[in-house]
Amino acid sequence: MKVLDASNVNEAYVIGMNYLNDNGLVEDSRIGKVMVAPEPVTTLYRRPDERVLFNPKRDCNPFFHFMEGMWMLAGRNDVEWITKYNSSFTKFSDDGRTYHGAYGNRWRYWWGRDQLETVIQILKDDPSSRRAVLQMWDPKTDLGYPGLDFPCNLSIAFRVKRGRWLNMIVFNRSNDIIWGAYGANAVHMSMLQEYVAGHLDLELGGYHQVSFNYHAYVDVMNKVG
User: Fold this and answer.
1) Tell me: the pLDDT tens digits for 42-92?
2) C-alpha triplet 49, 72, 159: angle, nearest 5°
3) By three-state DSSP, how is residue 87 classified?
4) In what order do the strands lie in the sheet with 34-36?
């Protein structure tokens, strides 16, 4: 397991791209050549609220990422609202109306309960709890699912540190570091952490992103590297 220790997403992007360039192995994938890390990678953000990537070549859309974070916290899975901020996002929907793997919908509604509010209540009742876990992967509907969209991030665990900080760890099965880990994920997952911390009157602690398959597509790396 490789650990990349960074202050914020801007440091993480540079460290991660350098690590992948120096150590990555080129593999074939269903959508082209991909550079893959030789082992799982954990990125630690010590300042997760510094979440906007300013790299000019990557040219992130912070407005879309922010609104996507709000869309998730609201528990939505509809195409119509989120594509006002990124029309190309439509291509990830199977039916043109909803997203099968929408994280927020799974946090709020998927199993007939609001996992997010339950996690908050668990930590209010017992700040020492190690059972505050959000689940996103549903083996009943995701394992073998042939569609376009299902969760890359699988589960999220929260832990209160010394009664003052909220730490968070996210487990990801397949992480594109350019579009996912250091683009969208750094924004909407840190927003989730901030939401939970705010409800618990805690400061933000560290955010660990564990990426089992840490990769970037070669053609994209050549454009933004």
Assistant:
1) 999 999 999 999 999 999 999 999 999 999 999 999 999 999 999 999 999
2) 55
3) helix
4) 25-27, 34-36, 214-217, 175-176
Alpha helices in the chain (DSSP H): 9-23, 62-73, 79-82, 103-108, 115-125, 139-142, 186-199, 218-224
Q: How far apart are CA 29 and CA 50, in angstroms?
A: 32
Residue with tokens 């150590």: 23
Is the confidence at residue 225, as pLDDT, over 80?
A: no
State yes or no: is 152 an active-site residue. Answer: yes
Catalytic residue, chosen from 152, 160, 168, 216, is 152
First to last CA, the chain: 24
Res 30: pLDDT:
86
Distance CA 221, CA 225 (A): 5
Alpha-carbon gap, residue 66 to 73, rounded angstroms: 11
Q: What is the token pair recorded at 120?
A: 């908050």
Report, as an integer, the average pLDDT of 136-160.
Answer: 95
